[in-house]
Design goal:
55% helix; 17 helices; 15 strands
């Protein structure tokens, strides 16, 4: 198929460009929107709790056995551990950019399982979590209450039970976390003097609570083998885990030989409170509960923030009296402003390019051709971005702004050469287009290859720098390739349909501009000779 095929069939050439535009518009609807490309290394986090232990004990008894097993995980860059005095341990594993975080999570979990036999039984019983952590922060949702009876402990537990799960199910949300989570817990404040008098230790109390505060299978009445004539089978339901303070107070710690009993209330003060008071959120000087919202990989930040607000509006309908929410921090506002400014720059650049083209081509008919080629190339670029897994961010939009001045060149080369044959050779637009394409096809292909040779190698840079500039460079390369295709198909077809021969010399401003250009070219030619 030669390029004259498109000149003789302008409708087919137009349909091909329309298909490119449609593909770009469809991709535009599903492309994720973010401030920057995903350049942060993947992170997997291991969390464990050792109630009652100090930071030093947690580091030696929990963190150290796990850390010994971590070296050797594929693509692991480094890891860091943090132990706190509330018995919590966190190990963050950072992997190379581009590592499959799901595979990294599985490998980290396997290594953690190898360390479990060396960990304290209490830590294993509490549970060890291994999860991937998203570094893309969407915003913060604050829960507050004007009712004094709804303190931060109530708000924290209400958020865990009724809000967090709803936010995690929102499309685009990677994770939702309660900052300073204060789960309800039965707190036992031991009396050391009384315990010493009764020769009791904290371990004794812990064993008593563990033994008596659990669910017991009580069995079934009427289950086989049963006497003949038994018609009903009834399960026995007994009280399981305790929920009231008075129930804990009546726990039997020790039975004395004289028949008297030592109960838990004799050696401890029991109260219902928070599991930990180490963290507390405040906003404007008042206690609040904060929900941290993280973005899922590849999700649209703007759309996700809108869905989160809609979900919170729906959840607010069932809030207890006096409870309300607000969004004190939203990262998408900066993204909106940044993209709006870049789109404004994109429009201004488009107008300036078309204006300059009109000034030098001096014909609105000739200006139409590059004015059509540029949007086709830019919109079609979105399809290429979607195919390569890119997002709409400040770097890709900046690449498109720079591409405007590049993609217009191919169409101008075609238009100028067609007009030259029409003016100097007296050919018709169709004949001039055919002859012109035999001359400029190779230069247009060369332009595309040279520009690709400049930008494509940037995509092969390694590390964070390569990930940062990969989308910028490849966006320009995709736009250049599409512009070259459009210049070889749509532009000559439009030249044959739209352009008309010039019969009169230009006067006024355009005539003066032609005269100056002719003299400047003549002087350059004489100097070169």
């Amino acid at each position: 198929m030669t390029l004259q095929f498109f000149i003789d069939r302008p409708i087919f050439a137009s349909v091909v460009s329309i298909v490119i535009v449609v593909a770009g518009l469809v991709s535009l609807q599903v492309l994720p929107v973010a401030q920057f490309p995903e350049i942060a290394p993947p992170v997997v986090q291991i969390d464990a709790d050792y109630p009652g232990a100090s930071a030093e004990v947690v580091a030696d008894a929990v963190a150290r056995p796990i850390e010994v097993q971590l070296p050797g995980i594929d693509h692991l860059l480094y890891y860091s551990s943090t132990s706190t005095n509330d018995g919590h341990m966190t190990i963050s594993l950072t992997f190379e950019v581009g590592t499959d975080v799901d595979i990294a999570q599985i490998q980290a979990q396997n290594r953690q399982k190898l360390a479990e036999p060396q960990l304290p039984p209490e830590v294993v019983r509490q549970g060890i979590t291994v999860k991937k952590v998203s570094s893309n922060f969407v915003g913060v949702v604050a829960l507050s209450s004007s009712d004094p009876s709804h303190d931060t402990i109530f708000l924290s537990n209400y958020a865990v039970l009724h809000v967090v799960d709803r936010l995690r199910r929102v499309t685009g949300v990677g994770d939702a976390v309660v900052f300073g989570q204060q789960n309800y817990a039965m707190r036992l404040i031991l009396n050391p003097i009384r315990m010493a008098q009764l020769s009791l230790t904290p371990t004794d109390i812990a064993n008593v609570v563990r033994e008596q505060n659990r669910d017991f299978p009580a069995g079934t009445i009427g289950r086989d083998p049963a006497p003949k004539g038994t018609e009903l089978t009834i399960p026995i339901i007994t009280q399981g885990r305790l929920t009231e303070v008075k129930d804990f107070e009546e726990m039997i710690v020790r039975a004395l030989p004289n028949g008297s009993m030592i109960r838990l209330k004799d050696v401890a003060r029991i109260e219902l409170g928070a599991q930990s008071y180490t963290l507390e959120g405040r906003w404007n000087g008042k206690p609040n509960v904060f929900l941290l919202i993280f973005l899922a990989p590849g999700a649209n930040a703007l759309a996700t923030a809108q869905r989160v607000r809609a979900e919170m509006n729906d959840a607010a309908k069932s809030f207890p009296s006096g409870v309300s929410y607000d969004v004190p921090y939203d990262t998408t506002k900066f993204i909106e402003v940044s993209i709006r400014e870049v789109m404004k720059t994109l429009g201004e650049a488009m107008i300036l390019v078309i204006l300059v083209v009109y000034v030098f081509l001096q014909s609105w008919r000739a200006t139409i051709i590059p004015a059509v080629a540029v949007p086709v190339s830019l919109i079609g670029t979105f399809a290429g971005m979607y195919a390569m897994g890119f997002s709409i961010n400040t770097l890709t939009l900046f690449g498109m702004v720079l591409a405007i001045g590049i993609v217009v060149d191919d169409a101008i080369v075609v238009v100028e050469n067609v007009e030259r044959h029409m003016t100097q050779g007296g050919l018709s637009p169709a004949e001039a287009a055919r002859k012109s394409m035999t001359e400029v096809t190779a230069p247009i292909i060369a332009i595309v290859l040279v520009l690709c040779a400049v930008f494509v190698p940037v995509a092969f840079l390694g590390g964070i720098t390569g990930e940062l500039y990969k989308q910028f460079a490849m966006t320009i390369a995709i736009a250049v390739i599409i512009s070259g295709f459009v210049a070889l198909t749509l532009s000559p077809s439009l030249c044959a349909l739209v352009l008309t021969p010039r019969h009169k010399p230009r006067r006024g401003f355009f005539g003066l501009l032609d005269l100056k250009s002719t003299r400047l070219n003549s002087s350059h030619v004489s100097e070169s000779r």
